[in-house]
Amino acid sequence: MLVVAMLAGCASQKSDFYTLSVEAPSDTTRSTEMISVVVGAVTVPELIDRPQIVIRGGANQVDIDEFARWAEPLKSQIPRVIAGDLALVLNSPRVSVYPIAGDSAGAFRVRTDVERFDAVPGESVTVDVMWSVSPPGKGRPISGRTTVREPCTGPGYGALVAAWSRALATVSRDIASAIRPAPAL
């Protein structure tokens, strides 16, 4: 009987895997112009560059949940999601994380540096991203910083990941405005 109890205690907990998603933008730019954009590699803080989801436990504390994991590294997910969001916002199928066949010199190049990717469960997430857009040719890069606090719509990791996805959509809209400024009214 003792052996059965010990074996039951050794049973491992099932891990849950999460992935960021492209969010449908609330505002898109309809254009017939085909804009090419290459979203380059992203840097993320070493603290979150791990398979486990990291959340804020206090001002000087984080919690790393061994059973709530990213399905792929954030360094892969974030540029893919930003590229997907940009494709929707700019209404262009020529947005990718890899150079698209053709004239890659004619593409805008986006670089991102994630400074903060925090979450307080049941409350909100905060994303702080420094970004730059290099226009085709030898134009001057446009730099910006977007800090977003996005509320969670419910409890649990699924709500946190959805909030992070919405926050990245806001970052993408800011980047899109640097690529194609809004027309003057």
Task: Report on the architecture of this protein.
The chain is built from three helices and eight strands, in the order H-E-E-E-E-H-E-E-E-E-H. With 185 residues, the protein is α/β, with parallel strands linked by helices. The strands form two sheets. A five-stranded mixed sheet has the order 5-2-6-7-8, covered by helices on one side. It has a three-stranded mixed sheet with strand order 1-4-3, covered by helices on one side. Helix 2 crosses helix 3. The radius of gyration is 19 Å and the shape is elongated. The termini are far apart.
Topology:
Elements: H1 2-10, E1 16-18, E2 37-43, E3 52-58, E4 61-70, H2 74-90, E5 95-96, E6 108-120, E7 124-134, E8 142-151, H3 157-179
Parallel strand pairs: 1-4, 2-5, 2-6
Antiparallel strand pairs: 3-4, 6-7, 7-8
Helix pairs in contact: 2-3
Number of strands: 8
Order of helices and strands: HEEEEHEEEEH
DSSP helix count? Answer: 3
Task: Give the class from helix and strand content and strand pairing.
Answer: alpha/beta
Q: Kindly report how far apart the N and C termini lie.
A: 79 Å
**Which range best describes the helical content: under 10%, 10-25%, 25-40%, 40-55%, 55-70% or over 70%?**
25-40%
Give the overall silhouette.
Answer: elongated
Poorly predicted runs: 2-8
The average pLDDT is 87
Biggest sheet, strands in spatial order?
5-2-6-7-8
Rg, alpha carbons: 19 Å
Give the amount of beta strand, in percent: 25-35%
What is this entry, summarized?
This protein has 185 residues and is α/β, with parallel strands linked by helices.
